[in-house]
Specification:
The chain has about 200 residues and is α+β, with helices and mostly antiparallel strands. Helix content is about 50%, strand content about 10%. It has 2 domains: about 1-80 and about 190-195, Glutaredoxin; about 90-190, Up-down Bundle (Glutathione S-transferase Yfyf (Class Pi), Chain A, domain 2). It has a 5-stranded mixed sheet. It is globular. About 30% of the residues are buried.
Length: about 200
């Protein structure tokens, strides 16, 4: 399998999951602005959506959308326990949270990365994110991970998008449980391996 990624983008989530699962996944860096891969290919020809992550399977098929890719990767190594079995309520709970992070948090960061975003819209988005993070902060009050004592694909996704806060000057220090969660994820060996591979840490 080959994972198309951009350093620090949401593609870091499936990259982390692949390493947590012990999967041998080839990496291909994508220039998000030029839409070219490290090997010189036109990324539009690989993924018509134009963004990462994209996972090229061994038979040549392409999977896109991070929440789907992380579940696919986790299902390749069920013994790693990164996602509950398909069809169980636990699986739907994970999908529920992946959807929440995707629609309420991930997408809300988008305007904060653009210089053209007005101060008013910027303030509105930051206030919205604080409200959405408050729910997650409460959920993490008495447990290490979103679903208790086992790290899951949802934890990887939340960690990656929350890591963007510093880049857009979003102060999340009031969410103390979330801050502790971020530190726990960052300390995981597979997470550090993925971040080093993407040039995000020494």
């Amino acid at each position: 399998m080959k994972l198309y990624f951009s350093p620090g983008a949401c593609s870091l989530s499936p990259h982390i999951v692949a390493r947590e699962a012990g999967l041998d996944v080839q990496l291909e860096k994508v220039d998000g602005k030029a839409k070219r891969t490290a090997s010189g290919k036109d990324f539009w020809q690989i993924n018509p959506k134009g963004y990462v992550p994209a996972l090229e399977l061994d038979d040549g098929q392409l999977l896109t959308e991070g929440p789907v890719i992380v579940q696919y990767l986790a299902d390749q190594r069920p013994d790693a326990g990164l996602v509950p079995a398909s069809g169980t309520l636990g699986r739907y709970r994970v999908q529920e949270l992946l959807g929440y992070v995707n629609s309420e948090i991930h997408k809300s960061f988008g305007p904060l990365f653009h210089d053209a975003t007005s101060p008013e819209v910027r303030a509105e988005k930051k206030a919205y994110l604080h409200k959405r993070y408050a729910l997650l902060d409460r959920a993490l009050a008495e447990k290490d991970w979103l679903f208790g004592d086992r790290f899951s694909v949802a934890d990887a996704y939340l960690f990656v998008v929350t890591n963007w806060a510093g880049h857009v000057k979003l102060d999340l220090s009031e969410h103390r449980n979330l801050q502790s969660f971020q530190a726990r994820v960052a300390a995981r060996p597979a997470v550090q391996e993925a971040m080093r591979a993407e040039g995000l840490m020494a």
